[in-house]
Amino acid sequence: MTGDAFSLSETIADALPANVVAHGSASGEVMARDLAVHVARHLATACAARGQAVLAVSGGRSPIPVFEALRGLDLPWSQITVTLVDERWVPDDHPDSNAGLVRRHLMQEKAAAATFVPWYDGSADPYAGQATCEAALQALPLPFDVVLLGMGDDGHTASLFPDAPELTVATDLTRHALCAAIMPPAAKQARLSLTRYALARQSARLVLQWSGAAKRDVFQRAVAAPTLALPISLFLHQTSVPVDVWYAP
User: Fold this and answer.
1) Do the strands 53-57 and 146-149 form a parallel or antiparallel pair, or are they unpaired?
2) Lower CB density within 10 Å: C or N end of the chain?
C-alpha cells in the first residue's frame, strides 16, 4: 500500500485480502493522473503480449478525470478496444448514457483511434437487448485486460445493486453469461451490467476507484467479509483476478 495525505486506517490496511493492492493519493487530481498511467501501463503490456487489449470502463462523474488524462497518453490505441462495465438503458445521446459519456471524455485525442463497443441497441428494455450485448461481448478478444470499477454508497459496483431482484442470477458463477439485465428499485433506469462471472473469471485485472470518507467507510465494510449486501466485496475477496484500489480525499 502506498499512502499520502488521505490514507487507510491500520485496521483497513491490515484486513486487505492478499490479492488487493491499495494506492493512496493526496488529491483527486493526483489520483486521476497516476491511475491513468497505471491503466495505460497494463494496456501497453497486453498489446505487447498479444497484439491487442480490451478496456472496460464505468460511467458516472468519478472516472471522467481519469478518461481525460488517459486519452492523451501514448498507446497503440488502434490495438485497443474500449467497452463498458454497465449501461443505463437509454439512447447514446441521453444525458445519462454511459456510452455518450465515454465518447465525450475518453474517445478523443489519441484515444480516438481505439475501437469502441457500446451496448444500447434500441430495444425496449435491457432484457430485450441482452442477447445482442452478450454476442458483442463474446466477440471481443477476451479477457478484459483492465476493468475500471467504481463503488456506490450502497456497495454496488458496475450495476450490481444490492437491492436488485436480478442480483443472485447476475452473481452466480456457474452461469457463464457476460452481461445481465438489472432493474434496481433505487435507480432511475434499468441497466445492463457485466456479471460476476465476467468480472471475476474473464478479466485480467480489476481497478477500483473511490474518493472520500463515506466511500472509505463502505470500503472498510466490504473488506471485512464477502456479502451480497455489498456486491463490491465479492470482488475484493475473490482470488482469480488481482485488484488495484485507488483512493483519494
Assistant:
1) parallel
2) N
How far, rounded to the nearest angstrom, does the alpha carbon of residue 240 sit from its chain's CA centroid?
16
At 4, the pLDDT band (50, 70, 90 cuts) reads very low
CA distance 72 to 104: 13
pLDDT tens sequence across 13-48: 889 999 999 999 999 999 999 999 999 999 999 999
pLDDT at 203: 98
Grid coordinates standing for 209? 476507484
Give the span between the Cα atoms of 233 and 218, in whole angstroms: 10
At 229, is the secondary structure helix, strand, or coil? Answer: coil
Strands 191-194 and 179-182: antiparallel
DSSP 3-state helix, strand, coil percentages of the chain (rounded to 5)? 35, 20, 40
Distance CA 20, CA 166 (A): 27
DSSP string, 19-33: TEEEEE-SSHHHHHH
**8 Å CB contact between 159 and 181:** no
- Measured at the alpha carbon of residue 54, what is the angle toward residues 194 and 123, in degrees to the nearest 5? 45
Is 172 in contact with 196 (CB distance < 8 Å)? Answer: yes
The sheet carrying 86-88 orders its strands as 86-88, 191-194, 179-182
Residues 6 or more apart whose CB falls under 8 angstroms from that of 48 comprise: none
For 19-248, CATH gives 3.40.50.1360
**pLDDT at position 188 over 70:** yes
